[in-house]
Amino acid sequence: MFKEAIYHRPKDNFAYAYDEKTLHIRLRTKKDDVEAVHLLYADPYEWKDGVWQLNRAPMVKSGFDDLFDYWFIEVIPPYRRLRYGFELTSGNEKIVYTEKGFYHEAPTDDTAYYFCFPFLNKIDVFHAPEWVKDTVWYQIFPERFANGNPAIDPEGTLPWASEDPTPTSFFGGDLEGIIQHLDYLVDLGVNGIYLTPIFHAPSNHKYDTTNYFEIDPHFGDKQTFKKLVDLCHEKGIRVMLDAVFNHCGYYFAPFQDVLKNGEASKYKDWFHIHEFPLQTTPRPNYDAFAFVAQMPKLNTENPEVKKYLLDVAAYWIQEFDIDGWRLDVANEIDHQFWREFRQVVKSMKPDVYILGEIWHDAMPWLRGDQFDAVMNYPFTNGAIRFFAKNEIGAKQFANIITNVLHSYPENVNEVAFHLLGSHDTPRILTVCDNDVRKVKLLFLFQLSFTGSPCIYYGDEIGMTGGQDPGCRKCMVWEEEKQNRDILEHVKKLIALRKAHPAFRRGKITFMDASDESNHLIYTKTYLDETILVMINNSSKEIDITVPLSLKGKWLVNLWTNEQFAAEAETLRAAIPPYSFLLYQIKNW
Amino acid sequence: MFKEAIYHRPKDNFAYAYDEKTLHIRLRTKKDDVEAVHLLYADPYEWKDGVWQLNRAPMVKSGFDDLFDYWFIEVIPPYRRLRYGFELTSGNEKIVYTEKGFYHEAPTDDTAYYFCFPFLNKIDVFHAPEWVKDTVWYQIFPERFANGNPAIDPEGTLPWASEDPTPTSFFGGDLEGIIQHLDYLVDLGVNGIYLTPIFHAPSNHKYDTTNYFEIDPHFGDKQTFKKLVDLCHEKGIRVMLDAVFNHCGYYFAPFQDVLKNGEASKYKDWFHIHEFPLQTTPRPNYDAFAFVAQMPKLNTENPEVKKYLLDVAAYWIQEFDIDGWRLDVANEIDHQFWREFRQVVKSMKPDVYILGEIWHDAMPWLRGDQFDAVMNYPFTNGAIRFFAKNEIGAKQFANIITNVLHSYPENVNEVAFHLLGSHDTPRILTVCDNDVRKVKLLFLFQLSFTGSPCIYYGDEIGMTGGQDPGCRKCMVWEEEKQNRDILEHVKKLIALRKAHPAFRRGKITFMDASDESNHLIYTKTYLDETILVMINNSSKEIDITVPLSLKGKWLVNLWTNEQFAAEAETLRAAIPPYSFLLYQIKNW
Ligand SMILES: [Ca+2]
Ligand SMILES: [Ca+2]
Asked: Which SUPFAM superfamilies match (chains A, B) (predicted)?
């Protein structure tokens, strides 16, 4: 066996508390190198006649990617303590892998050799809100969703959808516009809305905050926002706001004070200023988001700044009862800040959702002390490369998804935020080169996958557009201009996701993935329900054998409601190009 | 190249802030598989004409162990942000390793492929007290160090050293005894003392605390302790106490209250009680240290308990100015508790040393938010297997030490607590089967190694004894009964460690390790000083070639003070069995 490929380190995604009683243990080995793995484990104080009383239990192969197999087991240690190692076998070969290295036989004269999960302390268990698992989000860019109150339009507002947006154009979208279209969202079936920033800021995107305690006057006022949240809650819709705490806007009063008073400003330590006087060109001589002088980075290590921002976080929960905070540029702010942020917001509202914007591997923020989830861009990236761009085949896609799932604990995956696009990426229909069939497959995969999916406003009606500002066009409200075909598809998927817990909470198992025919078959299983999804992501009709023994089962086509009893050992299915089949498998 | 063996994941020991400006990046590859590694890196916002402006810099091989090579580089990112990947070459083969996998050429159209160190926030930098790097500790088990005040001896106290200790015997050691022997410690050269628990407790070891706010009356009173700390500080000696917060003693008032009042006790949530009434046999029906009914586990998640214990931690700093807390059974207490503990004690005394008792890999406690160091038992274990027991050869020993050093960031290693034994292990002379030569080599390695070494009282005079209670005999004060040979050896080593920063702060490089002759040669380098250590850990004299080009250097034998100019290309050295040579290498 290939020792160099074997990896385990306690905590993070390899050994973690799934809940207050249960540990999950994972092991990574070289792909197809190991035939079986057993966990050797016991409480460290279980001794008899000088021999440590090891137990032995088989691990299951929970998946594989390009290079590795992953092994999994769940253990409930009776005294919440565990020492453990791994017995790996392949043919006649057997090795025991421990913290101290490899052995031929498992030592039982000492527990010091072994890996250690010292104690399952409840307070350290990763714990995210339960409702997130049952939520379908809808992301709204308020300036472009609907203009409900022309009286507060900014100067120079263009007629709705009269032209393509530029980085600086205004179309008059506002909170009242959202309120007026809540029925549309209810009809669509979403039960969470995520609003990009709504606080006072000069730009149309409002990531350059002027005042964190005020609603932007072009979006409305606090009464309107209160009405929006209350109406949403009445309709069973949660509301998440965008916390832009990494940087403020150029017109944020403390920054203006520093611009004016320089070193004498009492706010000079609110920022990271390299030298006085401040300069904005060629690059700002203060830390900023990227090198954008209009977005000075806040010094979140400064206790005054910390208090200010934590007060902001508390205020919008306390006064308006919001349900979540999405954290902009979350990984550029210190961990210490986020730990205190979590304590503040969770103490006010224990089931508030904390969602970080992190585009990379985010394990260090998902250890239970900081975020509940991150925007899972590695998922997005894989899905787009496979479905939208056909850059990778079905096998590689399954490997990417398996790899992402094994990068985090299961309880983290269960609340991960899965998006196909956002205000920061081109529209998916555009990425799919206007191929509606591909968009439908993307929605199918997203809405049958675990976690908390999010639809970017307008993607459900086939809006198009490239990278910002193209992806921020005005929402199309005229039904005849909407792609009703995509809309009905999305509504149907959301309805299925609601009706069948296996869609949202089911564990995914890749049954088959072919690079030749580019088809992908997976099941989602939750409790006693199994959903079978078969996707043909190629331009040719395929005729495949279902890789499951279904004899004696009922198959319900969830798309057509047809159902039939499987009588043969094997079943064959024909799937048109860029299409799919969706079955619920039921016992007789 | 062997892709499955290549490992990197940002943060922890692979990518971390060494200080407020500097990042350290490490990579692991299969041993002898890769010829060169270059870091590809840049600020994520450095673009020109749509191309990300990557830099390329060579990494150095910082060590190897049984299976792996380790590569290292230091980077100072001008804007504190970094994206990076690795270019690995071997012969004509070249691969680029990124977060998203392997490529033939480094992509420059997007930074999303790459590993991400988002921002170097100062507050998240691991930061331990500087003085710890220059400290040699002395661990005292107070009941057995010296009886300075017979008037407060417990009932049934035995005459000093009149017999071997049992688990329950008392010999009358106390704080006054330590005070009376401070000159001995000054003469030995140590400048830190670590006292096992001194708070009110019935046992001789006092890990079963009755009252955390009182000195045990058999050890003395608060005035005496204050005098001890003040005298130590006058003599440049720091004082560290033992915080037994995982569990209390059976006679701790809140536990007694629960025993008496059962479910009606207001302290019932201070513990983890499975059912009422409490039972102590056959196993306690409440959580305990191991299964020891006399040591009920405290519920450190309970805010009342947390406040109580944090008050304890603060009290002994505030009132007595102690310099460190050693945390007993530290890994069985929740991370949340330790994060708050750090905030409390560091806010009172920023350079207090927080030392956790963790016998296993302790990375999750050493991320800057919890401990400064752990008792580095993997070091102890390796040193004992090589020097004391000859269970492993020189190569494997060098590999173990290299592996331990690469398991943690460098700034963690610089303050690690390195012990050869403690009140929880057999005495080193006993482990060495009474071979004084081996004990001397152990002290040589420990006291020439990085971090903060600790001598267990009496080991320096050749005391013997097996596992507890054997290792807790009364300190031998009659000079004629002390092993003066070991004592002089230790004093000399401590003096050298003080005189030569390279001993304590130098980076270790293993130059040669032979399993045949069992010799080990390493250098310690700090700034412009290099120390060369050559150890013969075998029963035969060896005659070796020094694996360094020393021509044109002065060699100072630090043990004999002889010095000579190296004139030949190669130097040969003869080293007697279980002996060593120690040179300072100087330029002409
Ligand atoms: Ca408007
Ligand atoms: Ca006494």
From this structure: (Trans)glycosidases (SSF51445), Glycosyl hydrolase domain (SSF51011)
Considering only alpha carbons, which residue of chain B is nearest residue A284?
A: B79
From first CA to last CA, the distance across chain A in angstroms is 44
CA distances from A461 to A431, A439, A535, B204 (A): 15, 11, 22, 76
- DSSP track, B207-230: -S-SEEEEE-TTT--HHHHHHHHH
CB-defined contacts A:B, below 8 A = 126
C-alpha B220 to ligand 2 mean position (Å) = 8
Interchain pair B361, A9: CB under 8 A: yes
Residues B420, B433 within the same domain: yes
Using CB atoms, pick whichever of B99, B121, B381 lies closest to residue A361. Answer: B99
User: Which among B11, B300, B360 has CB closest to A116?
Assistant: B360
Domain boundary among A499, A519, A544: A499
Q: Catalytic residue positions of B? A: 328, 357
Per the CB < 8 A criterion, the answer to whether B116 and B45 are in contact is no
Does residue A477 sit in the same domain as residue A511?
A: no
* Cβ–Cβ gap B335/A3 under 8 Å: no
Cβ proximity of B334 and B365 under 8 Å: no
Distances (CA, A) of B202 to A39, A554, B209: 41, 70, 8
A interface mutation test: which of B2, B114, B122, B123 has the most A CBs within 10 A?
B123
Q: pLDDT in tens for each of the 588 residues of chain B?
A: 999 999 999 999 999 999 999 999 999 999 999 999 999 999 999 999 999 999 999 999 999 999 999 999 999 999 999 999 999 999 999 999 999 999 999 999 999 999 999 999 999 999 999 999 999 999 999 999 999 999 999 999 999 999 999 999 999 999 999 999 999 999 999 999 999 999 999 999 999 999 999 999 999 999 999 999 999 999 999 999 999 999 999 999 999 999 999 999 999 999 999 999 999 999 999 999 999 999 999 999 999 999 999 999 999 999 999 999 999 999 999 999 999 999 999 999 999 999 999 999 999 999 999 999 999 999 999 999 999 999 999 999 999 999 999 999 999 999 999 999 999 999 999 999 999 999 999 999 999 999 999 999 999 999 999 999 999 999 999 999 999 999 999 999 999 999 999 999 999 999 999 999 999 999 999 999 999 999 999 999 999 998 888 888 899 999 999 998 888 888 899 999 999 999 999 876
| Residues of chain B positioned with their CB less than 8 A from the CB of A97 | none
Same domain, A43 and A95: yes
Would the CB atoms of A364 and B112 count as touching at under 8 Å?
no
- In angstroms, the CA B564 to CA B586 distance is 10
How far from chain centre, in Å, is Cα A292?
27
Inter-chain CB proximity B116 and A360 less than 8 Å: yes
